[in-house]
């Protein structure tokens, strides 16, 4: 039986993790979940939000499913999410964004993929308080990380039959840092003549995405733009409750939804487990369990198609009721 790390998170994390484990188990696939807690709740006992045991577990199992973990705002600790991505060198954040059956949105032809660089940019956490009224944050862009993420995006496009990889930047203003990212893109793009190339400024991208998202296929972005744009693209297909993601490195992969821990609806049996479930479906495909992945995806799609939804999608089902509906459609 395959062992997979499950970081069950906090906020709505434990509820949606329960739902996903229940659905996978009902599909007939046996997984030995190595459940690892992390975040604000473990600081008191273990002194930090991301104890070494969590990293060791992912390193050992190579694959993890991760529910959202809250990072306490302000002083003290780095974000668990950022640290996990850095320590495991999960350099590529992959966020496919496609309309779901039965989830009505302004558009019905969204089918794009956000590839976000995961290890540097303003997320490097290099900040300095100059004086009481001034703080600096350093944007770090390297050729090595930029070429690596662009190559990942082009390889993804080739493997998944995509037509175009578009580089997103603000290189007209940040001429050195974003200029370097763009230069890396152009270098890598030469190796993939079969994939169409495009460059766009991030502000123009945002406008065009909300006007006509079908204009875009694969987008490759530095870390911060990737974070913001992927929340925008989540909105195009029904919101954070349905937006899946994956963090992929050379030796490990951590699958997690785009959304955070949604503390406003914690413990109310209201959370939508779809984003975590779709992340788990991708994870199953990644480990070669394609038939179970398809079975679960079909059951989810049938449930949504029938109009059975949680409140964030305009439905009236609780997390557990929605979970049970999906399980009923597993065959
Ligand atoms: P982070 O900064 O950690 O990404 P965030 O500030 O973007 O977090 P989220 O926790 O992602 O915020 O949630 C934003 C809002 O979206 C929440 O207030 C919640 O109401 C809603 N939301 C997010 N995820 C879900 C979900 N799975 N089901 C239902 N509603 C959700």
Summarize the entry for a quick read.
With 331 residues, this protein is of the alpha/beta class.
Oligomerization state: single chain
Question: What structural category do the secondary elements indicate?
Answer: alpha/beta
Into which percentage range does the β-strand content fall?
15-25%
**H and E string:** EHEHHEHEEEEHEHEHEHEEHHH
Give the helix tally: 11
Which radius of gyration do the C-alpha atoms yield?
20 Å
Query: Terminal Cα separation, in Å?
Result: 21 Å
Which ions and ligands are bound to the chains? adenosine-5'-triphosphate
Task: Write out the strand line-up for the largest beta sheet, numbering strands in chain order.
Answer: 2-1-3-12-11-4-5-10-8-9
Mean pLDDT across all amino acids: 95
* CATH architecture heading of the largest domain: 3-Layer(aba) Sandwich
Please identify which CATH superfamily of the largest domain we are dealing with: Isopropylmalate Dehydrogenase
The CATH class of the largest domain turns out to be Alpha Beta
- Domain module count: 2
Q: In this structure, how is the largest beta sheet organized?
A: 10 strands, mixed
Helix content: 25-40%
Q: Report low-confidence residues grouped into runs of 5 or more.
A: none
* Strand segment count: 12
The global form is: globular
Look up the CATH topology of the largest domain.
Answer: Isopropylmalate Dehydrogenase
